[in-house]
Structure formats: C-alpha cells, structure tokens
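User: I'm putting together notes for a lab meeting next week and I want to include a structural view of one of the chains we've been expressing. I don't have a solved structure, so I'd like a prediction I can at least talk through. The sequence is below, exactly as it appears in our construct file.
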Amino acid sequence: MLNIWAGLDAHRYWRNFEQTCAANARKVDRATLLSSLRSSHGEIDEILASIYKTGIAVVPNYWSIEKCAAARGELDRLIAQYPDAVNIFSGGSDKRMFGVEEVSSLLGEFHHDPFLRGVGEFVGGLALYNFVTLGACIEATGANNGSGDGWHRDGHGYQFKSILYLSDVTDDNGPFEFLPGSHKRWRAAFDTAMGGLPPPPGTRYEPAVVDRMVSRFGIKRQHYPAKAGTLMLVNTSGIHRGRPLRSGSRYALTNYYYHPFQIDLNRIESFPTMMPGTAERICADLALNNA
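Assistant: Thanks for the context. Below is the predicted structure for the 291-residue chain, given as structure tokens.
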C-alpha cells in the first residue's frame, strides 16, 4: 500500500541523522587517507566504488586459510573459557562473544587493522572508533534465523562494519545477504513509501515484507558464499541478514564502528555481555567516567 507520508518521514529521519553526525563527529582528511589506503591495497578504488554504489565490497583472501583456522580455534577456546560472556541468539544457534580483541592477540589483529577503519572513515568522511569486535559461531538448527536474527538495518544513516569469514561459507551454511542500494537515503524513503517497510526508527523487517518488496520491484537480493579469509566491507544501514543455515556452521569476526560521540556509558551498559576488560578499554580510550 502506498504511504507517501511514511516515505517522507523516513527521508527526513535519515537526513537529520546525517546532519547530527556532521555536527558532532570529526572530519577526516580524505586526500591523505586515500593515499594511505592506496598504499595498503592495490584495488582500493574498486573497493570504494563498490561500497558507494551497492553498499558492500568483497575482498577475497584477506586472511590466509591457516590464519583463519587458528582464529576458529581461538573462538572455540573462548567459548569454553568464558561461558558467561557467550551471548546466545537465533533460537540458541548463534553464539556471540563481544570484545574478543581483549582476550586474544590473534583476533585483536582484526580489531586493530587500520585499513578496515580507514575504508569506513573515507566512505563516511568522519572519524570512527572500533567499539568492539564480535567473534561468532552459528550452527544449523531447526530454530535458527541466521546470523543477526533476520532482516534488519544496523541504523538509519551511514553505519560501517567489516566482516571476515573464518570458515568456508556456502549457500547452505549462512552466507551474508544484502539488498544492494538499500543503504541510500532515497531508497529508504522509496522502500518505506512503496514497499511497505515500517518507518524509522524501526530497523527489523519480517521476511514476508522483504520478499514482497523484492518481488514487486525486481530488487536483486545478493548473497555472498565465499572461502575462509574473505573480507566484506559494508554500509550496514542497508538491509541485510545472515541467511538461515540449512547445514554445518559458520565462524566470523565483525568490527563494530561508531563515531565517538555516539558512545557513552548507556551504550556500553545496554550492549550484550562483553569479554573482560572491554568496557574498561572503551571508557579509557574515550575518557568516559566508568562509575
């Protein structure tokens, strides 16, 4: 059903968010940053163009097969060593540990990788802080909804994540899925007005609503099976999910980036249980009063 007013509200909501970020976050020197990114990766121009156009870029072989195997072993170790910091989602199938960088030097390499943050800062034009790295293992069960627990946006307006597959991902064990172009403000307004999506600030969408919208407007629903070591750089204001698993399991790392002004004690306290030392590191980095 056509709802022009809802579409206009969505457009306004995104615009206000972008204006708030521009007023409160530090601008980056994009020329200097681009020079640094080009020295780090020879295909950076193609990567950036893909993120601008579709909302996502895929970089194969970012980590070696051997390094990914070691990282999977680290996640298994942390699940056993820190059971109180393992958060369970998606019908019990999705085991998530926030702050793995604090308890594993190997996993911390992904957290501290300057290339990843640099891409996010260049695309958005504003400084970012890596709040936390998620280490996750999801398994095929009858109740699983996939990683992320269904179709959603991470926010309305620019949001950046870097995701690394630590295991081979096929069509059957939960590939990342994304609606290309849904990271754009005009598309958010169109999809709300014409596609029947709930307006902001809601960020979660029923599968039937997404399926209807995709079918009605011929939107391409892209999924990303790939080998272990594949990196995805994503504007997660676009609509995405991890496809529900039919078999096997999937291991991955994800960096959560925010503008520093978006982080306060309330955000830390409202986040799922984190690994020891994570909250203390964030408070120290951003000079927050950790009462």
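A couple of points you could mention at the meeting. The domain at 4-285 is CATH 2.60.120.620 (Jelly Rolls). Strands lie at 56-59, 87-89, 94-98, 129-139, 160-165, 176-178, 222-224, 231-235, 240-242, 249-258.

User: Perfect, that's what I needed.
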